[in-house]
Amino acid sequence: MTLIPRTLSAMLAASAMLAAGAAQAEFPERPINMVVPFAAGGPTDNVARSLAEAMRPTLGQTVVVENKGGAGGTIGTTQVARSQPDGYSVLLMHAGFSTAPSLYKNPGYDPFKSFEPIGLVVDVPMTIVARSDFPPNTIQELADYVKKNKDKVSLANAGIGAASHLCGTMLVEALGVQLLTIPYKGTAPAMNDLLGKQVDLMCDQTTNTTQQIEAGKVKAYAVTSLKRVPTLPKLPTMDESGYKGFEVGIWHGMWVPKGTPKPVVDKLVKSLQAGLADPKFQDRMKQLGATVLTSEANPQALEAKVKQQVPQWAELFKKAGVEQQ
Predict the structure, then answer these.
(1) Is the pLDDT of residue 4 over 60?
(2) What is the pLDDT of residues 63-89, one digit of tens each?
């Protein structure tokens, strides 16, 4: 009498394990939602849409990009953190992922406890640009000009926590002068006002500024990488312009909610790596001045990056006097 229940119990347990394994092996069975916590048309969105297409063949499903902007990326990031940990909701976010604990008293997520890392994606240098008729023509002239006209010069950004805000914070620290900072609700409106000569300066990713620079619609002073960007060979680096060691690279990474099954994480890692190796994706990123981080497209590299950068940004914001929101 006692053997039958035990046998049935063992059979049911084995059946459940097989079913779970089959479910994981079949992932994904429907389209995957890739959340970009910034507005459509911005630099992170540009990366996401190219990556979504590059990952599709390996996954065998469409990757749908959803823009969920606001509060420096924390709204969209929190949405993913609170999603079902089943792999169907992934986050594509930039270095702002590491700054939220310093910028916000309650960002809505913990960078270490709320997510499972998938891997690094690309690293994008920044460019320091101005309205096309701004008087200074070199970074040295810019430094002198802003010191003499600090109350009149405006510095635009895409909002607290955006890449342009992070770079702008480092720029004013390097120049040694506080400027009138104007936050916008996204990169597009900030760039539009720069093009319309409503604001003077902006520091933003090459994925958003390269075409404007090449068309002569903005005046460019420098890139923030330690080496010149191949797509903008005439533009000097901040380092060679006299600001030794000045480097701002806005890396991008991919995450899923904490508790996502390992087989699902592994499948997404494999798909990410295949996507980064896709020639079309690499060509597109090269055109935008971004470096594809093929060798760092794994959970370990992304986790190490976040652990390194959280305290670094906290120290910078404290030094610059940036208050929590």
Answers:
(1) no
(2) 999 999 988 899 999 999 999 999 999
**CA dihedral for 159, 161, 167, 170, sign (positive or negative):** positive
Max CA pair span of the chain = 93
Which is it for the CA torsion 254, 256, 258, 263, positive or negative? negative
CA 177 to each of CA 142, 200, 222: distance values in angstroms, whole numbers, following the listed order: 12, 15, 18
Written as six digits, the tokens of 23 are: 């479910």
Kindly report, residue by residue over 188-228, the tens digit of the pLDDT. Answer: 899 999 999 999 999 999 988 999 999 999 999 999 999 99
Give alpha helix (H) positions in 88-157. Answer: 96-103, 139-148
Residue 202 token pair: 């902006």
13 burial class (0-12, 13-18, 19+ CB within 10 angstroms)?
A: exposed
pLDDT digits (tens, 9 = 90+) for 116-168: 999 999 999 999 999 999 999 999 999 999 999 999 999 999 888 888 998 99
> Are 213 and 127 spatial neighbours (Cβ–Cβ below 8 Å)?
yes
pTM: 0.84
Helix (H) or strand (E) holding 181: strand 180-183
Phi, psi angle pair for 262, to nearest 5°: -55, -40
Residues contacting residue 248 through CB under 8 Å, at least 6 positions apart:
125, 126, 166, 167, 170, 203, 224
Helix %, strand %, coil % of the chain (to 5): 45, 20, 35
**pLDDT for residue 234:** 94
Q: What is the distance between the alpha carbons of residues 219 and 216, in angstroms, rounded to a whole number? A: 7
Distance CA 188, CA 43 (A): 9
CB 218 within 8 A of CB 130: yes
